[in-house]
Amino acid sequence: QVQLVESGGGLVQPGGTLRLSCAASGLTFSAYPMTWVRQAPGKGFEWVSTITVDGNTTYATSVKGRFTISRDNAKNMAFLQMNGLEPEDTAVYYCKVGAIRGQGTQVTVSS
Fold this sequence. Notes:
The protein is mainly β.
């Protein structure tokens, strides 16, 4: 059974940084693209970034230049480095593979 567990969220001031981690199990991790999505309070899910099996990356316009997605196939983990955080980045962040996502990790950007 596929399991995804996110961690690394927290409270940070505007301009701060966080690094989210996603630990995956129950799948051949290297064979799947990994995606990060987020859900802000009272809003729907928003795609943030995807990394392909070959390591190619794409980003939402709202985070491009500030966020960096990466993966470590040897450790079955994906990461989201978030720099220059803004209050608008406040959301629960989820990693996804296909239609499966984890329980999420809360990111709050506030002074």
